[in-house]
Amino acid sequence: MTPVLDFELRTRVVFGPGVFQTLGEHARQLGFQRCLLVADEGVRQAGYVSQAVSLLHRAGVETFCFHDFGPNPDTRMVEAGREFAKPHQIDSIIGLGGGSSLDCAKGINFLLTNGGSMKGYWGWGKAQKPMLPMIGIPTTAGTGSEAQSYALISDAETHVKMACGDPKAAFRLALLDPVLACTAPAMVRATAGYDAISHAVETWVTRKRTPISLSFSMQAWQLLNESFERVMAQPQDVDHMGKMLLGSHLAGMAIEQSMLGAAHACANPLTAHYGIVHGTAIGLVLRHVVRWNEVEVGAEYRQLHPELVKRLSELLECAGLPRRLAEAGVDRKDFPQLAEAAGHQWTGRFNPRSFDAEAAKEIYEWAW
Ligand SMILES: [Fe+2]
After folding, report:
1. 281 C-alpha to center of ligand 1: Å?
2. Which domain covers residue 193, as residue numbers?
């Protein structure tokens, strides 16, 4: 029997300006001694890696830094991380950065503790052995990966995005410090923020939604809708960045419960085929998916906003992201192939209106 609701908070959340400075104490409390720090290149350049290393050093935690991965972490990058970590006999992992750093940290944890390849963990609950304790520190208000026990890792050969989840892959602690997110470049703020908005909107209507996920989705939407324009115009506004970061985290908590929908199913093939950044791909399709779903969940959408499509369009305008597939370099001749791939996306199954390749083609046409 599948339960209607199965809810457990697996991640402790510590939020507030400056909480990054408490990293050392938290790591020590969790018993970290030899820690793998997984952080992307942008975060290293912003100086956060050296700050983290010195905070950990002062707390008596030895740190080994891994940076050798890109914006959409794939199986090869995660395997490189395992090879890097192996000889250091680490007992803990910290993911510091955007969603890619946090996903990569989770992926390395799977391989290091349970062996094999990422494909073996595609789906839910495939890790048999215990995993290492982890701290997640997002530096962008976006994916909410720090709230999820899924690692999104692309197959390096096929570019298919694999969602590999296990309750043991959840972060023990998420440190949410808006000061870190304030230094993200405008393009990152735009794509990450719009992605978070899509998480609130999609989780609000999925077939798997529960009373608990709905409360996360609504609160996430309110925080993100209120603050997105502000942080695009004034990135140094810590107060509003805090709302974005918390909103992204809550939207991530909603995903953990209710999954996503057709916007993610349509966006993933655009990323796989053309390398379009995830948030940009989402921006191209989200409002059309909402329009397409309206026959099924129009009343629910109106609870978020009386004119949700119009509001999403305004937010996209403010983000300065491309509005049409044609603008983003998508070739209309590829529609059948893209639609086929979209129809196979796992996340499409949770969309409130039955979604398949035909549906994806219609949405792509609207977005053209
Ligand atoms: Fe997303």
Report:
1. 9
2. 185-367
Looking at residue 91, which CATH number applies to its domain? Answer: 3.40.50.1970
What ranges make up the beta strands (E) of the chain? Answer: 12-15, 34-39, 62-66, 92-97, 123-124, 134-138, 150-154, 161-165, 173-176
Q: Are 196 and 143 in contact (CB under 8 A)?
A: yes
Neighbour tally for 83: CB within 10 Å = 13
What is the model's pLDDT at position 214?
97
Cα R_g (the chain), whole angstroms: 19
pLDDT digits (tens, 9 = 90+) for 227-260: 999 999 999 999 999 999 999 999 999 999 999 9
Q: Which helix (H) or strand (E) holds 58?
A: helix 48-58
CA 88 / ligand 1 centre spacing (Å): 33
Distance 86 CA to ligand 1 centre (A): 31
Ligand 1 centroid vs 197 CA: distance in angstroms? 9
Single residue among 139, 156, 180 that ends a domain in this structure = 180
Question: What are the C-alpha distances in Å from 236 to residues 52, 146, 302, 325?
Answer: 21, 23, 32, 32
SS3 231: helix
146 shares its domain with 294: no
Residues 17 and 83 placed together within one structural domain of the fold: yes
Q: pLDDT tens digit string along 346-357?
A: 899 999 999 999
Output helix, strand, coil percentages for the chain, rounded to the nearest 5: 60, 10, 30
Segments of the chain with pLDDT less than 70:
none
Cα gap 236→223, rounded to integer Å? 17
From first CA to last CA, the distance across the chain in angstroms is: 43
CB atoms within 10 A of CB 28: 15
How far does the centroid of ligand 1 lie from the alpha carbon of residue 87, in Å? Answer: 34
In degrees rounded to 5, what are phi and psi of residue 151? -105, 125
**345 falls within a domain:** yes
User: For residue 282, how far is its CA from the centre of ligand 1 (angstroms)?
Assistant: 7
Q: Which residues pair with 262 in a beta bridge?
A: none
Of 6, 61, 55, 4, nearest in space to 30 by CA: 61
Is the Cβ–Cβ distance between 238 and 333 less than 8 Å? no
